[in-house]
Design goal:
single chain, 668 residues, mainly alpha, two-stranded antiparallel sheet, 26 helices, 7 strands, 65% helix
Length: 668
């Protein structure tokens, strides 16, 4: 707040301080991951003991992950803050610092008071970033959804924590492990899981996430999606470490809801026409994939099968790391593209990689990572998740075998559509052909932004090569949940991975990184040797557009048209609505519906047929919108109470007080 002055030179200072603080948090997290016990006593601050912040192996793992990603994101924020027109954006740095500090407290809190206080601070930071620069034409819905569902999340966590605290008579989180199995513990599990599910964005409470991410400014979306959202996963990990053997029905729910969330998220990724929406819905998909892996771990904990527990936790943690890196990279790159072009409409961004090479490269690498293609860390996480789901036969009971099979099918569908969805981004947006009349663009994110995008890109590629080293770090961090000696079974040899259970399957992303380039060079060499000049000769022929003559459509797919197949196949999931209509024909006019319109351009007068299609949010359409009418009725009734007389309110309070005294006296 002090540095929020109207001077250009002061704008990046808070973000650079955030980067320095993030580096220190990574160092502290690394020490905790190595086994050092770190404690910051805050007893005198609250007046009760013991109270403070501590770092163990699990919190150390999350500190390294969250703030390892936050460091380059802070640099990107610093570069973004110096762009023209950013001098008036006062207060954003305060919301940014509040969010980062609250994340650190959530991960290291040892008592429930600090945990919940910091959790609410994260919600406040999200609200401030989402409500940024409220203009008259700017909707307040994203900010309202963020704060309402954020408060619902905090309320669920408060109720669950108080149930446990009432059982063991302690505010310390570690003491919750003393609560015996029973109905109270099961209800607490449900409440805690619900509170964390809201934050990470599982259906049906995911509706705040795409809107909020889209409403937040620039690279600060990466702070929300790549850094802060991980506290929800931390809460689930910590709960499983303290309260093993969760209710069986809750594990089944986690598998089914996680799979459904992943499929719904990737369906919207494949058809949305705004870049920010595409990336935001990808967060919903990744949240579902992480939850499926966590569901496998819950099944292993219930059955007492430590290897199944280990493979589930490994799959979920790997997917979480992939999400944090790729989502931060995508939002950072998208911020540079949006700032330089002034738009996030995919139809207007075709071939943007030619004009903005740094941001375009980051967008491509992030997309390939989330598509799970070789040479990226996404391949390791996708492969390990599918391998974890294939262990269903080890459960020995249909109660878990069937949900695991359904979740496996949903994840397989999600993986297939992910390839289709991100091919659209890489093939048409980044590598798309240059078009005539391209609008002028501004400069890329600059030196600091380039460092941020470069470091996140290297992490997405480098962690795939160094996957065995990543496994060792994850095994150490998961030690409070499952013994590291069991988790390290994911390494068959120093450079070969296996799904914990031996003799099932193996993968070596490190060797792939060596072999695939060699094979590519060999193929090119043979093509040049035997094809000679034909390999590099460019043939130019008129493009085929249609079987009918006189077609004046474009010679290439548009992002909207490319997604039409998915829009048709997943019509029941997306509630696809299409309509043919007659419209006037104008020269060079392109019409667009809310989610896209196909209308051939051309010249001349008369009428033509237009084709319009859009998609709906199925959960919002069938669950939340029917609740609006009774909600508005309650709101209108409440308004009547706001305009009463003071003496009437005092009379009501007196009547209630007398009634309470009478009831208490009667019971006495």
């Amino acid at each position: 707040l002090v540095l929020g002055v109207r001077r250009v030179w002061a704008k990046p200072v808070p973000y650079l301080l955030g980067a320095a603080a993030s580096v220190l948090f990574v160092v502290v997290g690394g020490a905790g991951l190595a086994g050092e016990k770190i404690w910051l006593g805050l007893d005198t601050l609250l007046g009760f003991t013991p109270s403070g912040l501590a770092v163990d192996r699990l919190s150390g793992l999350f500190l390294v992950l969250c703030f390892g990603v936050a460091t380059p994101v802070c640099l990107a924020c610093a570069a973004w803050s110096t762009r023209p027109g950013r001098v008036e954006d006062l207060g954003l740095a305060a919301a940014f610092a509040l969010t980062l500090g609250a994340v650190a407290v959530v991960v290291t809190a040892v008592d429930i008071f600090y945990f919940l206080f910091a959790w609410e601070c994260v919600t406040l930071g999200f609200y401030l970033m989402t409500a940024w620069r409220r203009l008259p034409g700017r909707s307040a819905t994203p900010a309202i959804l963020t704060v309402v569902l954020g408060k619902a999340s905090g309320a669920a966590l408060l109720l669950g924590a108080m149930l446990l605290a009432a059982q063991d008579h302690s505010m310390l989180i570690a003491d919750f492990a003393r609560v015996p199995p029973g109905a109270t513990r099961s209800v607490a599990w449900l409440l805690l899981a619900l509170g964390f599910a809201v934050k990470i964005g599982l259906i049906p409470v995911h509706i705040w996430l795409p809107r909020s991410y889209q409403a937040a400014p620039g690279p600060l979306r990466a702070v929300m999606a790549g850094v802060a959202v991980n506290i929800g996963f931390y809460g689930l990990w910590r709960t499983l470490s303290l309260l093993p053997s969760p209710p069986s029905w809750l594990a089944v729910l986690a598998l089914l809801i996680g799979g459904a969330t992943a499929l719904l998220g990737i369906a919207h990724v494949a058809v949305r026409s705004e870049l920010a929406q595409v990336i935001a819905y990808s967060s919903v998909e990744n949240a579902g994939l992480v939850t499926v892996g966590f569901g496998v771990a819950m099944v292993g904990s219930i059955l007492g099968n430590n290897k199944l527990l280990a493979i589930g936790m490994l799959a979920a943690t790997l997917q979480m790391i992939t999400h944090a890196l790729a989502k931060s990279l995508l939002f950072t790159s998208a911020a540079g593209i949006e700032d330089a072009t002034g738009t996030t409409d995919l139809n207007e961004l075709r071939g943007v990689g030619h004009r903005l090479p740094v941001s375009g490269t980051g967008l491509a690498i992030g997309s390939l990572t989330l598509a799970g293609l070789p040479l990226t860390v996404g391949l390791v996480s996708e492969w390990f998740l599918l391998e974890a789901l294939m262990q269903q036969f080890r459960t020995g009971t249909l109660v878990f075998e069937l949900p695991l099979a359904i979740a496996g099918a949903l994840v397989a569908l999600t993986t297939g559509f992910a390839g289709l969805a991100f091919v659209r981004i890489v093939g048409l947006i980044v590598l798309g052909p240059r078009t005539s009349g391209e609008p002028p663009v501004g400069r890329d994110l600059g030196v600091l932004g380039g460092i941020a995008i470069g470091s996140l890109s290297v992490a997405c590629l480098g962690l795939a090569i160094a996957a065995p080293l990543e496994f060792r770090a994850i095994a150490a961090g998961l030690d409070p949940v499952v013994s590291g000696n069991i988790t390290i079974g994911g390494l068959r040899s120093p450079w070969v991975l296996q799904p914990v259970f031996p003799n099932f399957a193996i993968l070596s992303p490190s060797w792939l990184a060596l072999v695939m380039p060699v094979l590519a060079v060999g193929v090119v060499a043979m093509a040049l040797l035997f094809g000679r000049r034909r390999f590099v000769t460019v043939r130019r022929t008129p493009p085929w557009r249609s079987a009918s003559g006189g077609s004046e459509a474009e010679s290439q797919y548009t992002p909207w048209a490319f997604a039409n197949l998915t829009r048709k196949i997943l019509a029941n999931v997306l509630l696809t609505r299409s309509e043919l209509h007659e419209s006037a024909r104008h020269t060079g006019v392109r019409t667009n519906a809310p989610f896209g319109t196909a209308a051939p351009g051309g010249s001349g007068a008369g009428a033509q047929l237009g084709y319009t299609a859009d998609v709906l949010e199925v959960v919002e359409h069938w669950l939340y919108r029917p609740l609006l009418r009774p909600l508005w009725f309650v709101v209108h009734q409440a308004r009547r109470l706001q305009n009463g007389r003071l003496d009437a309110y005092m009379a009501y309070m007196l009547i209630v007080l007398i009634a309470v005294i009478a009831v208490a006296a009667a019971l006495g």
